[in-house]
Amino acid sequence: MPDKKEKKTPARGRASAGTAATAGRRPARADGTRAGLGGSSPRGQHRLDVRKTYKLFIGGAFPRSESGRSYPVSGPDGTLLAHAALASRKDARDAVTAARAAFGRWSGATAYNRGQVLYRVAEMLEGRLDQFTSQGVQNEGLDRADAERAVAAAIDRWVWYAGWTDKVAQVAGAANPVAGPYFNFSVPEPSGVVAVLAPAGSGLLGLVSVLAPVIATGNTAVVVASERYPLAAVTLAEVLATSDVPGGVVNVLTGRTGELAPVLAAHMDVNAIDLTGARPQERADLERLAAENVKRVFATGDGTDQDWAAAPGVRRLLAFLETKTVWHPVGL
User: Fold this and answer.
1) What's the CA gap between 69 and 199, in Å, rounded?
2) CA–CA separation, 272 vs 282, rounded Å?
3) Which of 14, 200, 203, 295 is the most exposed place for a label (fewest CB within 10 A)?
4) Could you give the CA distance from residue 215 to residue 300 in angstroms, rounded to a whole number?
5) Are 305 and 312 in contact (CB under 8 A)?
6) Which 3 state secondary structure label does DSSP give 166?
7) What is the pLDDT of residues 20-64, one digit of tens each?
8) Beta-bridge partners for 297
9) In DSSP terms, which residues pair with 116 in a beta bridge?
10) Angle, nearest 10°, between helix axes 144-162 and 111-127?
11) Which class for 185: exposed (0-12), middle (13-18), buried (19 or more C-beta within 10 A)?
């Protein structure tokens, strides 16, 4: 009788060539991608983009809102771009706490050192020029050329304020003539924690124009980003986090300006507030809340009637400075 052919089976603990090639893989779909997998293969198969998660920036970290809320951010044509964190009242209070904790170190740094730190931020902004330009096109609806000009102007503006850190004392201070054997000096000092309502109708350039002068003069900031155009603010926060800016010097909140502004205006540990991004009908109420602890209030226009590309001048540099007068006897 002819011998029966034996059926060969793989040795225990080993897989056949076909089994090894498909181990752990899911079956292929008709479009060539693996079921349940979003990645691509070296053959150029389709993959899903990694969606960016937009968070808050508080104390040098990127927490989600404690409320867990978010809101959609769309382009001018209604295209959904992202979901930004919807900051709560508690997030605003946490940001103020972080800003207060950072104030001593930042205000105590030399003006020259603060200038170096701000210049480093400008270097990092330059490296992300294409990203900020794309956000200006998608979020603000600018054409490519206008977006590039706006980003370049924002970078130049940051450099401009970096150069003012060790010069503003000569502009705002003075040696005063007095009738007596005394030296009398007026010395500018930072106000403290400043709440900044970023202009509602501008992305990066408007934000830089209101934030840079605040921290250049030694203050720390809690920024409420533009509700419509928050993407530039979140990306700027990433730049600050990877620069030399100490954690807590700048804190960025995204969400409803109408919800966060009253909290900051009434907060007893906020020393000043910039109302640029507040709606005109809300300003009187915010000013009344700010009067409770005699906050400095800076209000000029509504942010939409300002040409952010125009030369800024020194008004914002001087807005959040206090003047200390020092007397000293001659000869001692």
Assistant:
1) 23
2) 17
3) 14
4) 19
5) no
6) coil
7) 334 444 444 444 444 444 444 456 678 887 777 789 999 999 999
8) 273
9) none
10) 160
11) middle
Check: CB of residue 55 under 8 Å from CB of residue 44. Answer: no
* Residue in 223, 235, 208, 195 with CA at minimum distance from that of residue 73: 235
Give all domains of the chain, ordered by start, each with its CATH number.
Answer: 70-329 (3.40.605.10)
CB 215 within 8 A of CB 250: yes
Which residues touch 244 (CB under 8 Å, ≥6 apart)?
Answer: 116, 117, 120
DSSP for 86-127 reads ---HHHHHHHHHHHHHHHHHHHHS-HHHHHHHHHHHHHHHHH
Q: Residues 57, 234: contact at Cβ < 8 Å?
A: yes
DSSP 289-304: HHGGGT-EEE--S-SS
Per the listing, tokens 């001087």 go with 318
3-state helix, strand, coil in the chain (%, to 5): 40, 15, 45
Identify any residues that bridge with 251 across adjacent strands, giving them in sequence order.
222
pLDDT tens digit string along 59-90? Answer: 999 999 998 999 999 888 888 888 999 999 99
Q: What's the mean per-residue pLDDT of the chain?
A: 85
The residue assigned the tokens 């800003």 is 99
To the nearest 10°, report the CA torsion of 175, 294, 92, 160.
Answer: -30
